[in-house]
Amino acid sequence: MLPREHGGEEQGLAEPVGPVIDQELCIACGDCAPSCPQDALSLVEGAPQVDLERCTYCGACESACPVGAIALPFEIVLITPGEGDEHGEG
Ligand code: SF4
Ligand code: SF4
Fold first, then answer.
1. For residues 46 and 27, what is the distance between their CA atoms, to the nearest angstrom?
2. What's the predicted TM-score (pTM) here?
3. Is the pLDDT of residue 88 over 50?
4. Is the pLDDT confidence value at 1 over 60?
5. Which helix (H) or strand (E) holds 33?
6. What are the structural domain ranges in the chain?
7. How many whole angstroms from 18 Cα to the centroid of ligand 1?
8. Counting Cβ atoms within 10 Å, is residue 16 exposed (0-12), middle (13-18) or buried (19+)?
9. In this structure, is the dihedral angle defined by the CA atoms of residues 49, 53, 59 and 60, taken in order, positive or negative?
10. Could you tell me the CA-to-CA distances from 65 to 36, 43, 68, 80 in Å, in that order?
11. What distance, in Å, lies between the first and last C-alpha atoms of the chain?
12. CATH says 22-79 is which class?
């Protein structure tokens, strides 16, 4: 019942982890590849592959898949204010 503190506490940041393709559900129809505006999806030997260098996590492929084999999960990354990426030891 304590009020949640803001500031100085760890904060959660939702980071996309990229389209995840369930190969069990995938029927290799190929619909996802042309749906991608970044040309980040291609079928390699019938299995969709995502180029995460190009992917902008727009979700178009997720919508295009007729069997719901593509998901765009997010990962909660904890960041602690004040503990940046500075490592000034030494
Ligand atoms: S989320 Fe968007 S950019 Fe990424 S692979 Fe799917 S359609 Fe392409
Ligand atoms: S649209 Fe879905 S079922 Fe079709 S190839 Fe892509 S992931 Fe597989």
1. 9
2. 0.76
3. no
4. no
5. helix 32-35
6. 22-79
7. 8
8. middle
9. negative
10. 11, 13, 6, 37
11. 43
12. alpha beta
Indicate which ligand has the atom closest to the C-alpha of 60.
1
Joined together, the tokens standing for residue 59 give 């979700």
DSSP letter string over 22-57? Answer: -TTT-----THHHH-TTS-EEEETTEEEE-TTT---
Q: How far is it between the farthest Cα atoms of the chain? A: 56
Stretch 14-42: mean pLDDT? 95
> pLDDT tens digits for 45-65?
989 999 999 999 999 999 999
Mean of pLDDT over the chain: 86
- Among protein residues, the one whose CA lies closest to atom 4 of ligand 1: 55
AA identity, residue 89: E
User: What one-letter code names the amino acid at 11?
Assistant: Q
Distance (angstroms) between ligand 1 centre and the Cα of 65 equals 12
For 59-84, the pLDDT digits (tens) are 999 999 999 999 999 888 888 877 65
Rg (CA), the chain: 19
